[in-house]
Amino acid sequence: MISNRLSRWTLLFFAVALLNFLVAQGVLISGLTWPAQSLSAPVTLIAVHLLTIGWLLLLMLGALFQFIPVITSRPLPSQTLTLVTLIAIELGLIGMVCGFLALNFANALLAHCLPVGGALVIVGVLLACYDIGVPLLKARPMSLPARLVLTGLAFLLLTVTLGLLLALALSVSGFAVYVAPLLAQGVAYHALAGLGGWFTLTAMGVSYKLLPMFTLAPEERGRAGEAVLQLGATGFALAVAAGLIRAWHPAPLLSILSWLGDALVALAIGIYLWDVVRIFRSRKRAVIELHNKAAVGAFIMLGGTTLLAIVLMSLGVFAAHVGVFVFLVLFGWLSGLGLTQLYKIVPFLTWLGRFGQQLGRGPVPRVQDLVDEAHSYPWFVIYFIAVLLAALAGFAGSAFVFQAGVGLSALATIGLAFEYWRAWRAYYPRLRPSKPPVPPFKPGEGIIHGQH
Amino acid sequence: MASIEALTLDVREELRKGGEPLPLILGAVEVLKPGQSLRLLTTFEPLPLYAVLARKGFAHSARHLGEGDWEVLFTPGAANPQAKADQPKSATAGTSTAGWPAPSARLDNRGLQPPEPLVRILDALEHLGPGEVLEAINERDPVFLYPELEARGAAIHTDKQADGVHLLIRHAK
């Protein structure tokens, strides 16, 4: 029996995450960083970590705290710990931002904020892993989404550990000599473990539950789902491990393994996208709601970005355009999927929290009454066009158009945040009377007569 | 075990006021010492509660005191709650339906998107009389339904089959 039906702090996670996203977009709009500056410039690092930790990590954890009890039928060990997680990660992030600023101004004292902040983030992540991992490990049989999320958590731990080592190397002068190869080449694998192993595999796991749930498609994904998990997990692990070992011991074999890892990842993404198409095609529900319609934008971004990486790698120019690639993964695929799924998660949680007790005891609005799809649809279109525009500008090296693109994406984010807020405040049902739940139960319908 | 005196909880006043006794009862169960029994005084035989507390490992014996009052003694250790808690949801889960009447209403919720099955079941439940049973077939395990039923004092039996999740829900009151 799940007593903690609703994750208590999930909506606060989302609010803080969205704020961080807007701040990160602000940093990019300011022109202080990429593409005008290199990827390893301190201000770029600030923007990237605001995006990855402040926005995507908090968004994902907030969603998982609600999602894990649903897929495991078990409550989280502690709701309070989820709040501690939020505070630790946000404070840690602020510390890290101060630390990166210190790198810019070569302030040795302030530089210690970086590993201290990083350590706080790790504390938050460990607490979250406990809260999410315990119900996941206990659930039998372990579903495909559960196994994808567990694999993602392992990569999350790897990512933050590598991050802390990098932070120490950057801020503690004596430490750098021990991890010099990591400092030189490790950043790429820190990013690959985080964006790929953690975010992408976990997002796949969550979508494998949410997509069939709201389109009424079969949840069992059979061999395709297994292939996505096994090829994806092996691919990311191989690419990260081979890359890291190569930083210390360059060997031709490791380059081949690293390449093989990349290939497996591309294969896993291909199968996943094919499977997503299968889910949409086998759905029993004719109408596709806006959150899933808009998610198609994110899936196209995932496919397009993967193709782009393949082309850039085969032309041998991937390194020159790695910035655009990372931007597309962050804004197109991960943020795109996040923004679209929030459009369902926020109304659903609001509806359960506000109206759950009244169900069957009087008129209540439907979940879909909490949103106005026609009103929100343009924001999703603007968002994805803005991301595409910024990415093209990144290729062309036009800083101004890039800033304008990100500015447009920020505008769309604000528009969507406003719509989430309206859903949370039950604005639309107040504005107009809601229709009864469809299809309603009519007295007498389904009543069996003469059985007892 | 017999040396510990049973904890007595009288919810008759609460019930006459039209209140909700379940939180009080569950609260009392939480403060029981190991091996201690719960003696409950109510204004009706609390059939749905038997299932709820059986899952926590309590056996029950009820006695009619006259004038509509009931005394029910819940004794711990009668079942193995851990073994039940670890049962996968994919098999049958929830309450035993022994002694339940035949369903008085049936709902086929397949083909409906969440949370419509939840809305329909709770809606239909309100049209049922005390102790009556509703049968429903859902597309998926209705995870958000369980707490709502718990809050309403209703009992549920879940059975996952190839054609859907079969639910038997017994109205409280």
How would you explain this protein's 3D organization?
The complex is a heterodimer of chains A (452) and B (173). By secondary structure, chain A is mostly helical. Among the domains of chain A are: 1-140, no CATH class; 287-354 and 365-424, no CATH class. Chain A contains 15 helices and no strands. Chain A has helices at 10-29, 42-72, 80-105, 108-111, 113-138, 144-171, 173-176, 180-215, 222-248, 252-281, 290-314, 322-355, 373-396, 399-424, 427-431. In chain A, helix 8 (180-215) packs parallel to helix 10 and helix 11 packs parallel to helix 13 (373-396). The longest helix of chain A is centred in the middle third of the chain and has 36 residues, at 180-215. With 173 residues, chain B is an alpha+beta fold. Chain B folds into two domains: 7-78, TusA-like domain (Translation Initiation Factor IF3, 2-Layer Sandwich); 91-170, Translation Initiation Factor IF3 (2-Layer Sandwich). Helix content of chain B is 28%, strand content 30%. In chain B, the strands form two sheets. Chain B has a five-stranded mixed sheet. A four-stranded mixed sheet of chain B has the order 1-2-4-3. In chain B, strand 6 (105-108), helix 5 (116-126) and strand 7 (133-138) form a beta-alpha-beta unit.
In short:
By secondary structure, chain A is mostly helical.
Question: How are the SSEs placed, and which strands pair?
Answer:
The complex is a heterodimer of chains A (452) and B (173).
Chain A: H1 10-29, H2 42-72, H3 80-105, H4 108-111, H5 113-138, H6 144-171, H7 173-176, H8 180-215, H9 222-248, H10 252-281, H11 290-314, H12 322-355, H13 373-396, H14 399-424, H15 427-431
Helix pairs in contact in A: 1-2, 1-14, 2-3, 2-5, 2-8, 2-12, 3-5, 5-6, 6-8, 6-9, 8-9, 8-10, 8-12, 9-10, 10-11, 11-12, 11-13, 12-13, 12-14, 13-14
Chain B: E1 7-10, H1 12-16, H2 22-31, E2 38-42, H3 47-55, E3 58-66, E4 69-76, H4 81-85, E5 93-94, E6 105-108, H5 116-126, E7 133-138, H6 145-152, E8 155-161, E9 164-170
